[in-house]
Amino acid sequence: MEQKFIRNFSIIAHIDHGKSTLADRLIEYTGALDKRLMKEQVLDKMDIERERGITIKAQTVRLYYDADDGNRYQLNLIDTPGHVDFTYEVSRSLAACEGALLVVDASQGVEAQTIANVYLALDNDLELIPVLNKIDLPGADPEKVKKEIEDVIGIDASEAILASAKEGIGTKEILEAVVRKIPPPSGSIDEPLKAMVFDSWYDSYQGVVTLIRVIDGKVKKGDKIIFMSSGKEYEVTRVGVFTPLAKDVDELSAGEVGFIIAGIKELKDVSIGDTITHPDNPTKQPFPGFKKVKPVVFCGIYPVDTKDYDDLRDALEKLSLNDSSITFEPENSAALGFGFRCGFLGLLHMEIVQERLEREFDLNLISTAPTVVYRVKKRNGDVLEIDNPADLPPVGDIEAIEEPYILATIIVPSEYLGGVLQLLQEKRGIQKNFNYISEQRVILEYEIPLSEVVIDFYDRLKSRTKGYASFDYEFSGYKASDLVKLDILINKEPVDALSIIVHRDHAYYKGRDLVDKLKELIPRQMFDVAIQAAIGNKIIARSTVKAYRKNVTAKCYGGDITRKKKLLERQKEGKKRMKQIGKVDVPQEAFLAVLKLG
Ligand code: GTP
């Protein structure tokens, strides 16, 4: 189609403000799906997938809209991941667009994720169309929210569209605004192929499905293509678009969006943000902004039962088929045995993976506390990147340690402000901005060490604000901090999996706290268990779990054998979730005790 009739756009919104509902409404209005199919799709997407033999993962769809100006437009609605850990993927999806609908819940107002997404959209020079959703709700206050958008985001909201995705109000106005306000793409069809990858997933029948935005040139079935960052070449076997059902097309040309399938077996061979071109007539410059995503949060994952090691490896391999951002490498801990050091894009990503491993693969696991990647400058000039406290070089060799910081945006009702400011201070936050959005709400910008955020920040923020605070972040870079390694010794033996890296000013109370927590968590044994916290050779806190006074079964009445058996059974059960450290049974909670430090 002629470029002047193409519009590429996304919907950006805070979670629950109505992005998916609005997308469904747009699809329905433009008639891409009739009502019956729509229902089926909502009820059982799987059926449609089976029928077409291709997984529909993203809600990236091509719609045709007959506008009031008498022309028919091709609208490509591009989905963005709705999850703070996937900022880079969001930025690439937005880079595939010329504009975005900025959806704000008219009863809630601007939230942290709204702002974070707006920044990403503005970085990509997108035209933003404000949409105030949920105007059907009695609590909706469009005028107030318009003012918030103007004050906080700094864009004109006077023409914001009032909508209810639920009731279908404003749908046509939104489509008209997309056509009128969002510029058409501007690439050249005569230039060599330049297409940017903005999403991909693994389909068990088709292999890797890759979503692309063609910037220049065109791509069709049978073409040889090359991924510019990896240099890997493939032959295109299928080209198509989602309507939202997968539909083959002859070609995708400059300005268009769609999928290609090219016999790619592994998801890790396709990097988001990479540029595809023709090897025999390549584009001179790849599309800008590509970067290789690197995990930012690491933890050790160990099977409770060493027999499960191979199963754990198989499970990690299976998961990474569908999520190439997970990394894992075999690791050996003196305390926990054989396991894997796993890397994730963020805390939520880590929690999702851990949960899937336990649920879908039925594994009983012990995870160590999450850590960030520290940059250690050694006195001999070497610079190391360290994602495991156990790998920190001896104190004498270290010149400086740098840690990653984030820039956090937090929006909080003013009644909870005191508690939030205190939390930010405890977390070593540095205030960058403080503004009232309205009389009732404040927006804060803080630089915070990522290490403080990965440990119990979000839960605490939520509990101090009864769930009313919203939070989003981006990386802001590395900074030197006065950090030390805190070791834990159980009966004089250092337990590598319990070591943490902490700020020197917090080391004493964290050491004390950790030792107290461990004392509560480690059950009594047949002998005294000494728990100590140390920095280098210096013990900074200690505590003892006293031995049983009597045999456990002694309190059973002499003859009651069933009762005695039950007690022993129960003890055995309890043992399953324990890890033996030296002669001491340590429960898995102990390895996460550090998450609960005040
Ligand atoms: P995530 O998919 O979780 O990111 O949320 P989302 O932003 O896509 O929001 P979603 O469309 O799932 O809507 C969130 C909730 O708001 C759902 O319960 C919807 O039914 C409801 N909702 C969406 N639009 C409207 C609306 O216009 N009015 C009302 N009253 N509710 C709406």
Could you characterize the architecture of this molecule?
This protein is an alpha+beta fold and 598 residues long. The protein has five domains: 3-181, Rossmann fold, CATH 3.40.50; 194-277, Beta Barrel (Elongation Factor Tu (Ef-tu), domain 3), CATH 2.40.30.10; 297-368, Elongation Factor G (Translational Gtpase), domain 3 (Alpha-Beta Plaits, 2-Layer Sandwich); 375-481, Alpha-Beta Plaits (2-Layer Sandwich), CATH 3.30.70; 485-596, Elongation factor 4, C-terminal domain (Alpha-Beta Plaits). The chain has 14 helices and 33 strands. Guanosine-5'-triphosphate is lined by residues 13, 15-21, 82, 133-134, 136-137, 164-166.
Task: Label this structure with key terms.
33 strands; single chain; Rossmann fold; Elongation Factor Tu (Ef-tu), domain 3; binds guanosine-5'-triphosphate; alpha+beta; six-stranded mixed β-sheet; 5 domains; Alpha-Beta Plaits; 598 residues; 14 helices; 34% strand; eight-stranded antiparallel β-sheet
